[in-house]
């Protein structure tokens, strides 16, 4: 016997090759019927056809109601996977059934519920009278085709509501049968792993408030999807605390969803009467290949009012040059050499503040150490700025050392479980309880004073330990959620107070690469390793979400401090110029030849950064895993630069043809090696080779036939410049 359809409201949004079809059946919360490739112009009849065609039949042993797979999945609508909202009121009200009480468009920014506007968005307000909860769901389609969603739940009752989890979900089609995410560790972040999209849940949780071993992006796609091929859907949660993302495939109907939300520790979701909890933003992107998926993130980020527009300055960070050995004369000599080479910013890293002669003391005492800097930082700052460079300074505002004046005065400001003991130390440091208003004000005042004392234009903000047993003595309860919000307030307040300062996010390298922190930072330090071979992979994975102008990438010493590998300068530089270039090397000790070569690379970067930091980032699906090809193509498709790196010994030698993605197939291009390119390795030439003097080819030939990869030794790279001839 057929089951009647309830009255439904349908929305259809389109932007940049992406469509969303959203249905609200009766008074239920909305469900997404289609998220993916653009469906073209659709009228009401066509939308109603999609809704009808999407209805499922009842199975032989299922509930006697049509199931709904909502953006907030609810058991009350036949969902037997992970509920979107989990909680209870003293054991009751454990399963919600929200009923929509109002719908309104997202306001501000000129948004409207009309295709092709800058942003299309809707807020649904719903209530559950029995659970005594109200709920708001906001869903947006950005101009780049990126989907954003978040929710808020409010306790409308008199008793406490115990919220345990609030996750939002988007469906992916059954052709998405393969998952891709990342794992890793400190010094080796964002290493790819693939697995089948099998029945059950693939869950990635971070319980450390940072995630060297976590995933920036959880993606589902068609079998064998890559950079240039295969439909792929991915989700990211913009939150710098604990997180949970999952891919879930449910039987018997076989629904597949991607879910994301904050991971709340025990008690963090307790809502008193009238209190609300708001989720972080969940970001979701669809693409025909990972290149297109990532382009939606890049386009979105580049349209933010806070996105940096100045040329990305070449930085010298002194960490691997001097570590904690601060000496004015030595640092001034470093600055002199940096200025000669074309460096534009000088960053003094860890070790400048009170008692900080090593990693075991000083955190929290944000005052210049008079034993090392008897005249303060002014002599160094004046010397640096007198050379025409900006000055930057390192802080770790969220941490505290036991060996510090702050900890001795206020041991109660250290995050701890509340039973009279401290968590295990990490790097000889603990976490400062920023949820304590007095602690927050103390660190704000101290940093504000330092930033106002000299001409400081950049801050490297570090966060060097996992949060374990992170509770506040004010409440005796877990406090990672409130600590994250307090840290955001600290970032925001210091940025407001010092609008001319550019902030960099570092967390033991790449432990905090999310879009929550990147709302507040103009630079991301993607890893503490400067080993060029490692950084090619780390930076490529980071670029799935963060565009290259926001990713710090440094040229280090020939022998990498973190791995012991030795690489030619040309390889180290070719790896770094595709990000926000920096140097982390003792320039006083290097040879004249190295200075000359480094100056040439800096000059090349400064000439090319307009393209590198505005064009579309592309990676190629090379037939040989020994080859890595990354490029940037400008919006007009008239100019591009590619880096072809031999990352290991390949089975084929010479390596064969490689295709250059992203070019206009109707144009003709001149192709040349670019930059201070090294000599091609020892090979026998059988006649002319294109890389010796360049070649002119059509875009169709470059993208569909390719050109011979210059033979190279392992762990070497060349840059290829492509420019239209007409």
Explain what this protein looks like in three dimensions:
The chain is of the alpha+beta class and 726 residues long. The protein has 14 helices and 40 strands. The strands form nine sheets. Strands 5, 6, 7, 8, 11, 12, 14, 15, 19 and 20 form a ten-stranded antiparallel sheet that branches. Helix 4 (328-341) packs parallel to helix 5 (378-386). The longest helix is centred in the last third of the chain and has 21 residues, at 592-612. It is globular and about 80 Å long. The chain starts with 7 loop residues before the first strand and ends with a strand. Residues 1-6 and 109-117 have low confidence and may be disordered.
Mean pLDDT: 95
Say how many strands there are: 40
Distance between the termini: 66 Å
Helix-residue proportion = 10-25%
Strand content: 25-35%
What is the radius of gyration computed over CA atoms, rounded to a whole number of angstroms? 27 Å
The coarse silhouette is: globular
Secondary structure category? alpha+beta
Q: Could you provide a short overview of the structure?
A:
With 726 residues, the chain is an alpha+beta fold. 20% of the residues lie in helices and 31% in strands. The chain starts with 7 loop residues before the first strand and ends with a strand.
Question: Which labels suit this protein?
Answer:
single chain; 726 residues; alpha+beta; ten-stranded antiparallel sheet; eight-stranded parallel beta barrel; 14 helices; 40 strands; 31% strand; globular
């Amino acid at each position: 016997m057929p089951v009647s359809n309830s009255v439904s409201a349908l929305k259809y949004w389109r932007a940049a090759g992406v469509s969303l079809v959203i249905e609200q059946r009766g008074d239920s919360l909305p469900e997404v019927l289609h998220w993916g490739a653009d469906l073209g112009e659709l009228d009401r009849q066509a939308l109603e056809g999609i809704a009808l065609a999407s209805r499922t039949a009842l199975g032989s042993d299922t509930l006697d109601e049509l199931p709904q797979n909502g953006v907030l999945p609810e058991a009350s609508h036949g969902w037997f996977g992970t509920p979107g909202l989990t909680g209870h009121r003293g054991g009751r009200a454990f399963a919600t059934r929200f009923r929509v009480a109002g719908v309104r468009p997202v306001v501000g920014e000129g948004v409207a519920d009309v295709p092709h506007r800058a942003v299309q968005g809707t807020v649904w307000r719903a209530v559950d009278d029995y659970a005594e909860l109200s709920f708001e769901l906001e869903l947006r389609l950005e101009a780049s085709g990126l989907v954003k969603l978040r929710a808020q739940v409010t306790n409308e009752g008199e008793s406490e509501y115990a919220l345990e989890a609030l996750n939002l979900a988007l469906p992916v089609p059954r052709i998405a049968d393969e998952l891709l995410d990342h794992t890793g560790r400190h010094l080796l972040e964002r290493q790819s792993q693939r697995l089948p999209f099998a029945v059950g849940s693939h869950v990635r949780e971070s319980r450390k408030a940072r995630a060297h071993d976590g995933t920036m992006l959880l993606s589902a796609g068609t079998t064998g999807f890559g950079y240039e091929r295969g439909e792929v859907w991915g989700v990211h949660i913009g939150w710098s605390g604990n997180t949970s993302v999952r891919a879930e495939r449910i039987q018997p109907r076989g629904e597949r969803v991607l879910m994301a939300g904050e991971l709340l520790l025990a008690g963090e979701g307790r809502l008193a009467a009238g209190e609300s909890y708001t989720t972080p933003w969940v970001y979701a992107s669809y693409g025909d290949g990972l290149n297109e998926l990532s382009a939606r993130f890049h386009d979105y980020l580049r349209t933010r009012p806070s996105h940096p527009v100045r040329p990305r300055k070449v930085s010298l960070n002194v960490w691997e040059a001097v570590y904690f050995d601060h000496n004015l004369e030595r640092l001034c000599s470093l600055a002199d050499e940096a200025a000669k080479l074309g460096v534009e910013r000088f960053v003094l890293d860890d070790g400048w503040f009170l008692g900080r002669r090593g990693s075991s003391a000083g955190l929290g005492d944000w005052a210049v150490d008079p034993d090392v800097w008897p005249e303060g930082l002014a002599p160094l700052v004046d010397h640096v700025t007198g050379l025409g460079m900006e000055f930057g300074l390192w802080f770790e505002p969220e941490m505290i050392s036991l060996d510090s004046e702050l900890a001795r005065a206020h041991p109660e400001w250290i995050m701890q479980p509340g039973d009279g003991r401290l968590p295990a130390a990490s790097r000889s440091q603990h976490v400062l309880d920023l949820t304590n208003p007095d602690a927050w004000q103390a660190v704000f005042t101290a940093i504000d004073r330092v930033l106002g004392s000299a001409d400081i234009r950049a801050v490297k903000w570090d966060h060097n330990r996992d949060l374990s047993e992170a509770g506040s003595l004010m409440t005796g309860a877990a406090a990672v959620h409130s600590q994250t919000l307090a840290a955001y307030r600290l970032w925001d307040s210091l940025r407001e107070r010092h609008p001319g300062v550019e902030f960099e996010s570092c967390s033991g390298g790449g432990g905090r690469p999310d879009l929550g922190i990147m709302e507040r930072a103009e630079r991301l330090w993607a890893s503490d390793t400067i080993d060029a071979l490692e950084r090619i992979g780390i930076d490529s994975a980071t670029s799935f979400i963060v565009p290259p102008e926001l990713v710090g990438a440094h040229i280090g010493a020939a022998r990498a401090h973190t791995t012991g590998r030795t690489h030619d300068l040309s390889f180290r530089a070719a790896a770094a110029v595709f990000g926000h270039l920096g140097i982390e090397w003792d320039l006083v000790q290097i040879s004249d030849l190295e200075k000359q070569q480094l100056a040439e690379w800096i000059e090349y970067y400064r000439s090319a950064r307009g393209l590198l930091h505005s064009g579309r980032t592309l990676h190629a699906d090379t037939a040989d895993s020994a080859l890595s090809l990354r490029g940037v193509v400008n919006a007009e498709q008239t100019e591009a630069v590619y880096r072809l790196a031999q990352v290991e010994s390949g089975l084929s030698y010479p390596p064969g043809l490689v295709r250059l993605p992203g070019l206009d197939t109707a144009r003709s291009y001149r192709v040349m090696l670019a930059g201070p390119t090294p000599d091609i390795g020892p090979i026998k030439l059988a006649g002319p080779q294109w890389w010796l003097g360049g070649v002119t080819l059509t875009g169709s030939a470059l993208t569909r036939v390719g050109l011979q990869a210059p033979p190279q030794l392992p762990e070497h790279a060349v840059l290829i410049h492509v420019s239209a001839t007409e």
